[in-house]
Design goal:
Layout lengths: L3 H18 L5 H10 L6 H10 L3 E3 L2 E3 L9
Antiparallel strand pairs: 1-2
């Protein structure tokens, strides 16, 4: 069974994948998308995740930071 850290890492990967594929304008949208992938989270958890991931809201939508270069 995955521990809390593993679940957080999986959730962070899912958040970044969602943000790179779809325009997300509200945290509630992200909560719904995560639920569809099997993650039960609250809006406040998503808010912390977005901060931890350095996600910015630009022009009304959340933007994932650029992926690091392969050599990094």
């Amino acid at each position: 069974m995955p521990n809390e850290s593993d679940l957080r890492d999986q959730r962070h990967k899912a958040i970044l994948a969602i943000l790179r594929r779809s325009p997300i304008r509200r945290q509630e949208e992200l909560v719904e998308r995560l639920a569809a992938r099997g993650f039960e989270v609250t809006q406040s958890s998503v808010s912390r995740d977005l901060r931890d991931l350095a996600v910015a809201k630009v022009a009304g939508r959340y933007r994932a930071p650029a992926a690091p270069a392969a050599s990094e």
